[in-house]
Structure formats: structure tokens, C-alpha cells
Design brief:
TIM Barrel; 9 strands; single chain; 43% helix; 9-stranded parallel β-sheet
Length: 315
């Protein structure tokens, strides 16, 4: 039997008698995604999440951008407030949908003036559900062109999307990888994946990219399941598969929010622990503007508030 004292973090995932999260040193990087609020109540909820997660000193937080720029002003205001008040590096999402190159230049310049140095560059989804993306006559053809255009405007740090289970519109898994390579070749600094629910899905995708010569950072996007019906909807839109066993664990919990949250945190934490054992050290959490699940997972992975760590060391 493995000695709990001498077990390495990677061993702990399978070692007999060793707690699953024992010995984790907290050597991970984290980032969090939020969406711009539509009301004062939602803004209060968002800011509560920001304040709860800020002590974990995320590498950055990102704020989404509605289809066709529908949340442009709210996205800008949210990012600016996070930078100004929370003093966290904030990345703004930006898409090609229904925007000319001049439109994007104006938005990008406004972000740069507001102190935004990081953009999540995305092609964007069609404004009509079920429709296909059509480039603006005076706009960018896709995310790779958008990345190149942004780099020509200012020296932004740029993140792009990756799809471990292949983008629903891709002709094949290889064509999807080729598209990701074009985005990285255009100047993107890292890729953040769409959410997924099988650790091996990400690890296999990472291996395929490495075999294809891709060495840019690949960060797994983690979606803690707080609303099962909503998660099923999200998964259907992006092609993510929810394992039947996982779907079944949430049966009967619709009217038991406390139990549902406990199950969700347990699943997501064990999921991230397996990724950690596979060598992953950076995690991007889709928070849905709620802090508790993401905070709990980070805590189990050893990520602690900086102030608390300093107090413990001083003691």
C-alpha cells in the first residue's frame, strides 16, 4: 500500500488509503468566466461572485459578448469595473458576428483605452438559432482573421476557443484542429476549450494537438453543473456529450438544491483531480456568475486565498 505521507499528487488519484485530494500543493492557475448582467439584481449577483473569487488571485477573468454585439455596452462596463474595482486582469470576449472591421476596431480601441489587454477572440454564433454564420460584408471571415486584425490594432494577449469533441460545424476532427492551428498561427497566445465531461476527452485532444505540432497552452474549460436542464441545453448547442452515468446522478434532485450542489461539486472536483493527475495545471471555470462551485473545486485542488496563506505562514 502507498504511504500517504510519501505519495505524490499524481499517485493520490489511485492510491489505496490515500484521500483523493491529499498532498495537492495548489500549484494550479485558475481563471473564471462571467457574463454581463441584465438587471440590478443580476449585477449584484455577478459582483458577489467576483468578490468571492478574487482572493484566489485568478490569472484573469473573462466576460462574454452577446450574439451580434448585443451586450457590447454591458460587456465593456463589466470588464472596466472589474479592472478598476477588483483589480483583476480582465479579458473581454469579441466576435465577428454582424460587425465590420471598422466596428471591431472601434470596440478594440475602446477596450485598450479602458486598460483591457486581453481579448477572447471568437467567430461567434449566428444570431438566428439553427442558422449558419455569415460574415459581415465588411467584416472578418472567422476567428483566425479576427486574431490577425486585433494584433494589428494593438499588442493584445489573445485567447481562442478549442473543441475537444469537435465543433458541430466542422467537416471533421482534423479540419477542426487545422482551424485551431490557423488561429494560433495568426497570433493567439492560448486556446481555452469548450466544456466537456470526460477527462480523457481533453487528454486525448491534447495528445492529438501535440502530435500535430501544436505546442501553445491548452486550457480546459470546466463547467460545474449547477442547473442540469440548462447544462443539457448548452451541451446540445456545442456538441458536448453528457455521459449517461453522470446524467443519472442528478435524477431526483430537481427539488433538492443543496444535495444537487453537493453532487455537482463532488463530480467537478473529481473530474479536475483526474485532469491534474494527467498533468493539467491551468483551469478555466465557466461560473455562470456563481462563485460557490468554482471556489469549492479550487479549494479541493489546493488553491487558497493569498491572504489566508500569508496569515498561516506568519503564524
Amino acid at each position: 500500500m502507498t504511504d500517504p505521507v510519501s505519495a505524490s499528487p499524481a499517485d493520490c488519484i489511485t492510491a489505496d488509503g490515500v484521500p483523493l485530494f491529499a498532498s495537492l500543493p495548489g500549484d494550479i492557475g485558475v481563471s473564471f468566466e462571467f457574463f454581463p448582467p441584465k438587471s440590478e439584481k443580476m449585477e449584484a449577483q455577478l459582483w458577489d461572485a467576483v468578490e468571492k473569487l478574487a482572493p484566489l488571485t485568478p490569472e484573469f477573468v473573462s466576460v462574454t459578448y452577446g450574439a451580434g454585439g448585443s451586450t457590447r455596452e454591458r460587456t465593456h462596463a463589466t470588464v472596466e469595473r472589474i479592472i478598476r474595482e477588483a483589480r483583476i486582469p480582465a479579458a473581454a470576449h469579441l466576435t465577428c458576428v454582424e460587425a465590420s472591421k471598422d466596428d471591431i476596431r472601434r470596440v478594440a480601441e475602446q477596450y485598450w483605452e479602458a486598460g483591457v489587454r486581453h481579448i477572447v477572440a471568437l467567430r461567434g454564433d449566428p444570431t438566428t438559432p439553427g442558422g449558419r454564420f455569415e460574415p459581415h460584408p465588411g467584416g472578418y471571415a472567422g476567428a483566425a482573421d479576427l486574431v490577425a486584425g486585433l494584433k494589428a490594432i494593438a499588442p493584445f494577449e489573445i485567447s481562442v476557443a478549442a473543441y475537444p469533441e469537435t465543433h458541430p460545424e466542422a467537416q471533421s476532427a482534423q479540419s477542426d484542429i487545422d482551424n485551431l492551428k490557423r488561429k494560433l498561427d495568426a497570433g493567439a497566445d492560448r486556446a481555452i476549450t469548450q466544456f466537456f465531461f470526460r477527462p480523457e476527452c481533453f487528454l486525448d485532444f491534447r495528445d492529438r494537438l501535440a502530435a500535430d505540432g501544436v505546442d501553445a497552452p491548452l486550457v480546459p474549460g470546466i463547467l460545474p453543473v449547477s442547473n442540469v436542464a440548462q447544462t443539457r441545453k448548452f451541451a446540445a448547442q456545442c456538441g458536448a456529450q453528457i455521459p449517461a452515468w453522470m446524467d443519472g446522478l442528478f435524477e431526483g434532485l430537481d427539488e433538492r438544491p443543496g444535495a444537487r450542489k453537493l453532487v455537482a461539486a463532488t463530480l467537478a472536483a473529481e473530474f479536475c483531480r483526474r485532469l491534474y493527475a494527467g498533468g493539467v495545471r491551468d483551469f478555466h471555470f465557466y461560473t455562470l456568475n456563481r462563485a460557490d462551485l468554482s471556489y469549492s473545486i479550487c479549494h479541493l485542488l489546493g488553491r487558497r486565498p493569498v491572504a489566508a496563506e500569508q496569515e498561516e505562514q506568519a503564524a
